[in-house]
Structures are given as structure tokens and as C-alpha cells.
Design goal:
Elements: H1 6-13, E1 27-30, E2 33-40, E3 45-49, E4 54-57, E5 63-66, E6 71-75, E7 82-83
């Protein structure tokens, strides 16, 4: 079933991407540490951040190196953070007209 008004409906639902919004795979800096955006929806972005390695000495004078698992947390998609790896899109060349 093909409705003639479907083209107009899809034009109303289309939103242009916001250049100031966080995107998936953006590397951001929060409190001097790096994190990667792994998921983005309308209201939140999920960030993966590695925790620093811990090294300590046991009671028997043996050095132990412990790497804790990464942590995830949610921030706003419009958070004012420093994005380190976003490249601006190259401008498209307008096609030359032949006369």
C-alpha cells in the first residue's frame, strides 16, 4: 500500500545531525582522563573510561600489578567536554556546469 502523503511524512521526521552533539567513537577528556563514547541516544551518551592500574606490595614483599576493569557512565549528549578526535567533514565540491 503506497500512500501519496508518505513522502511528506518522512520529510517531517528527518532531523539534521547536530554538530555540537557527542557522536559514537568520539574520544573526550573528562577530569584529565580520556574516555570513548560507545553509545548515544536522544538524551544520554555512554562513555567507557579505563581505570588506572594499581600496584602494591603484599605482606610477603611480593609486588602485585592489578588492572581494574573499565567503567561506564552516562553524560548528556550536549555536555561541554573537549572532543579530541573529531574531524570536520570535507566540503563537497560543487559539480561544474558545462556550457
Amino acid at each position: 500500500m503506497n500512500l501519496p502523503a508518505q513522502g511528506e511524512l518522512s520529510a517531517l521526521c528527518w532531523k539534521e545531525p547536530d554538530p555540537l552533539r557527542l557522536h559514537v567513537n568520539d574520544v573526550i577528556r573528562i577530569d584529565g582522563r580520556l574516555g570513548r563514547v560507545i553509545r548515544v541516544n536522544d538524551c544520554a551518551a555512554v562513555v567507557l573510561m579505563h581505570r588506572p592500574a594499581r600496584e602494591f606490595t603484599t605482606r610477603f614483599d611480593k609486588r602485585v600489578h592489578f588492572q581494574p576493569s573499565a567503567t561506564t557512565f552516562r553524560i548528556s549528549t550536549h555536555a561541554e567536554t573537549e572532543v579530541l578526535n573529531r574531524n570536520p567533514r570535507p566540503k563537497r565540491k560543487s559539480p561544474e556546469r558545462r556550457t
